[in-house]
C-alpha cells in the first residue's frame, strides 16, 4: 500500500470545505444578478477602501516585526534550557492562548482605560495621565499580545529539534558565539521564523474584533469593512470583492515568504 | 559574566511572562470584585461566581465550546497526521499541488474562512448550527496539525523506518511503531494547538453558526453592552482548570522522560 493514500481524506475534505467556498467568493465577486461583471471589484477599489487596506497592511507589518523581535529571543532561550525547565516554561507561554481572545482583549481595555490601572500607576508616580485606549498603539498592542505565541511556537519547535553539534562545529572552526548564531542558528531556524511570520501577519491584517475593542471604531481595518458588507449591508457581491482583494494580497505575501524560504536554503514549495 | 548573562536571560523571560499574564491577572482579580465596573475595587465578593452557575446560557455555551474543541481537535489530529504522512511521501508534482491547496486555509484569514463557509453552508443547505460550527472548526484545525507534524517528519530520518522493515516489520507496523512515536511530539503539539484554536475561535464561529452560541459569541454579545464580571469569573475558572490540566500532563511527561532515561542507563549498564 502506498503511503500517499493517507492524504486522501484530507484532500477530499479540503476540496469541499476550502476549495469550493473559495470558488463561491470568486463567483459572488465577479457576478451581479447572475451576469459577469467587474462592477463589484471597481466599487471595492474605491480610494476610501484602499486607504483602509493600506493602513491594515502597515499595522500588520509592524505587529509582525514586533512579534518576531519579542518572540525569537523567547524561543531561543527556551531551546537552550534544560529539557524539564523548558517544557514547563514553554507551557507557560502557551497557557494564555487558552484564554478566550476576546477576554484577553477586554482585559487590555481595563488596563489601558482612562481610569484604568496603567493610569493609576502613572498617577502614583506623579506623571501626567495618558489616554492609552482608542489609539493606534492600543490596537497594535492587542495584536502583538494576541499573536505572540504563534511566533514563539514554530520557532521553538524548530530550534529545539536542531542539532547542537552544528554550533559546536562552528565554534570549533573559529566562529565566536555571535557569528555562530547569525551564520548557523538563525539560518537553520528560518523555516520556523517564516512559519511564525505567516501565522502572525495573516491574522493581523484582518483582525476585526481587536480594532473595534481597542481602537473604539476609530481605526477601521479591512476586516471591519468586510464584516460590514456581509452582516450589516447584506451585500455579498461587494463583500466578496473586498475578500477577493484581501486574498490576492495574502497570496502575494505568501509568494514573498516562499521566496524568502527558498533563499534560506530550504526545499522549495514548502511553507512549513 | 556568566551569572550576569543568566540574569538577563531570566529577566527577559520574566518580563515576557509578565506581559502575557498581567491582563489575565487583572481579569482574575476583578472577578472577585463586588462592584459591577472594572477598574474600581470596591470589595471582595464571590457573587459573580454564584451568578455564573445560575446562568443556563453560560452553561450551554460552555458545553458547546468544550465539546466542539475536543471533537474538532481529535478529528483534525487524525486527518491531519495521516495527511502529513501522505503528503510527505508524495512525488514532487502531486505534493506541490496538494500543498498549494493546503496553504489556502493556513494563510486564509479567519474572516474569509468564516464568510466563505457561511456562503457554502447556505449553498449546500446545511442547517444545524452545531454541525456547521464543528465542520468549520475541523477545517481550520487540520492545517495546523499538519503544520506541527510536518517539521518532525522532515527531521526524522528514514533509517529507523528502513531498519524496522529490515527487522521484519510490515510497512504499516513500522509506520505505527517507529514513525509515529518519532513524530509524536509534533502530533501532541498539533492536537493542543488545534484544541486551543478551537477554544479560542470567535471569528469563524461568529460567521458560520446559526443560533448556536459558543462562549466567544456569548461573550461578544454580552460585552457589547459593557463588560460583565460574570465573564471574569468564568475566565478565572477556565484558566485555573487549564493550568491544572497542563501541569498534570507536563509533570507526567517529565516523569516518563526520567523513567526512560533511567531505563536507557540500565540497558547501557547491562550491555
Protein model, in words:
The complex is a heterodimer of chains A (272) and B (271). By secondary structure, chain A is mainly α. In chain A, 75% of the residues lie in helices and 1% in strands. A two-stranded antiparallel ribbon of chain A has the order 1-2. Chain A starts with 7 loop residues before the first helix and ends in a 9-residue tail after the last helix. Helices cover 83% and strands 0% of the residues of chain B. Chain B starts with a helix and ends with a helix. Chain B folds into 2 domains: 1-30; 44-256, MetI-like fold, CATH 1.10.3720.10. With 271 residues, chain B is mostly helical. Chain B has helices spanning 2-31, 47-53, 56-88, 92-107, 110-124, 129-155, 158-166, 171-200, 203-208, 215-223, 229-270. Chain B contains 11 helices and no strands. The chains are: A mainly alpha (272), B mainly alpha (271). The interface between A and B is large, with 94 and 96 residues.
How would you sum up this structure in a few lines?
The complex is a heterodimer of chains A (272) and B (271). With 272 residues, chain A is mainly alpha-helical. Chain A has helices at 8-30, 39-44, 47-79, 83-94, 101-112, 117-124, 136-161, 165-172, 177-206, 209-215, 222-232, 236-263, and strands spanning 31-32, 35-36.
Topology:
The complex is a heterodimer of chains A (272) and B (271).
Chain A (H helix, E strand, L loop, with lengths): L7 H23 E2 L2 E2 L2 H6 L2 H33 L3 H12 L6 H12 L4 H8 L11 H26 L3 H8 L4 H30 L2 H7 L6 H11 L3 H28 L9
Antiparallel strand pairs in A: 1-2
Helix pairs in contact in A: 1-12, 3-7, 3-9, 5-7, 5-10, 7-9, 7-10, 8-9, 9-12, 11-12
Chain B lengths: L1 H30 L15 H7 L2 H33 L3 H16 L2 H15 L4 H27 L2 H9 L4 H30 L2 H6 L6 H9 L5 H42 L1
Tags for this model:
heterodimer, A: 272 residues, mainly alpha, MetI-like fold, B: 271 residues, 11 helices
Amino acid at each position: 500500500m502506498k503511503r500517499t493514500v493517507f492524504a486522501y481524506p484530507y484532500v477530499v475534505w479540503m476540496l469541499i470545505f476550502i476549495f469550493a467556498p473559495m470558488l463561491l467568493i470568486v463567483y459572488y465577486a465577479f457576478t451581479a444578478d447572475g451576469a459577469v461583471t467587474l462592477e463589484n471589484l471597481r466599487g471595492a477599489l474605491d480610494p476610501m477602501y484602499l486607504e483602509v487596506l493600506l493602513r491594515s497592511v502597515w499595522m500588520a507589518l509592524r505587529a509582525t516585526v514586533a512579534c518576531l523581535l519579542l518572540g525569537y529571543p523567547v524561543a531561543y532561550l527556551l531551546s537552550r534550557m534544560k529539557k524539564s525547565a523548558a517544557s514547563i516554561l514553554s507551557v507557560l507561554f502557551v497557557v494564555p492562548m487558552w484564554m478566550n481572545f476576546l477576554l484577553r482583549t477586554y482585559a487590555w481595555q481595563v488596563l489601558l482605560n482612562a481610569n484604568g490601572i496603567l493610569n493609576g500607576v502613572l498617577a502614583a508616580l506623579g506623571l501626567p495621565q495618558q489616554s492609552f485606549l482608542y489609539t493606534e498603539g492600543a490596537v497594535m498592542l492587542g495584536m502583538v499580545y494576541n499573536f505572540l505565541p504563534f511566533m514563539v511556537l514554530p520557532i521553538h519547535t524548530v530550534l529545539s529539534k536542531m542539532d547542537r553539534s552544528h554550533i559546536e562545529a562552528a565554534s570549533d572552526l573559529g566562529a565566536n558565539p555571535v557569528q555562530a548564531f547569525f551564520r548557523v542558528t538563525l539560518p537553520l531556524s528560518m523555516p520556523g521564523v517564516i512559519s511564525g511570520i505567516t501565522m502572525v501577519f495573516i491574522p493581523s491584517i484582518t483582525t476585526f474584533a481587536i480594532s473595534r475593542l481597542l481602537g473604539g471604531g476609530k481605526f477601521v481595518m479591512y476586516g471591519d469593512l468586510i464584516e460590514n458588507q456581509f452582516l450589516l449591508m447584506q451585500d455579498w457581491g461587494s463583500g466578496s470583492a473586498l475578500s477577493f482583494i484581501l486574498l490576492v494580497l495574502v497570496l502575494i505575501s505568501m509568494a514573498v515568504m516562499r521566496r524568502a524560504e527558498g533563499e534560506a536554503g530550504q526545499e522549495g514549495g514548502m511553507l512549513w | 559574566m556568566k551569572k550576569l548573562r543568566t540574569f538577563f536571560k531570566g529577566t527577559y523571560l520574566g518580563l515576557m511572562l509578565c506581559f502575557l499574564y498581567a491582563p489575565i491577572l487583572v481579569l482574575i482579580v476583578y472577578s472577585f470584585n463586588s462592584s459591577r465596573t472594572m477598574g474600581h475595587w470596591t470589595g471582595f465578593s464571590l457573587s459573580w461566581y454564584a451568578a455564573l452557575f445560575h446562568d443556563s446560557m453560560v452553561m450551554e455555551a460552555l458545553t458547546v465550546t468544550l465539546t466542539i474543541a475536543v471533537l474538532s481537535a481529535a478529528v483534525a489530529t487524525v486527518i491531519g497526521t495521516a495527511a502529513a504522512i501522505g503528503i510527505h511521501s508524495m512525488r514532487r508534482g502531486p505534493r506541490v499541488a496538494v500543498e498549494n491547496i493546503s496553504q489556502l486555509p493556513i494563510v486564509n484569514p479567519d474572516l474569509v474562512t468564516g464568510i466563505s463557509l457561511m456562503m457554502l453552508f447556505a449553498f449546500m443547505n446545511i442547517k444545524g448550527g452545531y454541525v456547521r460550527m464543528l465542520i468549520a472548526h475541523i477545517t481550520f484545525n487540520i492545517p495546523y496539525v499538519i503544520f506541527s507534524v510536518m517539521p518532525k517528519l522532515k527531521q526524522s530520518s528514514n533509517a529507523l523506518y528502513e531498519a524496522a522493515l529490515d527487522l521484519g516489520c510490515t510497512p504499516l507496523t513500522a509506520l505505527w511503531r517507529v514513525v509515529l512515536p518519532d513524530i509524536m511530539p509534533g502530533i501532541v503539539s498539533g492536537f493542543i494547538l488545534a484544541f486551543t484554536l478551537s477554544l479560542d475561535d470567535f471569528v469563524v464561529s461568529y460567521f458560520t453558526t446559526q443560533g448556536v452560541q459558543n462562549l466567544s459569541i456569548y461573550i461578544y454579545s454580552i460585552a457589547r453592552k459593557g463588560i460583565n464580571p460574570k465573564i471574569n469569573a468564568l475566565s478565572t475558572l477556565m484558566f485555573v482548570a487549564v493550568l491544572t490540566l497542563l501541569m498534570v500532563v507536563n509533570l507526567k511527561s517529565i516523569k516518563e522522560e526520567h523513567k526512560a532515561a533511567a531505563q536507557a542507563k540500565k540497558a547501557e549498564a547491562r550491555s
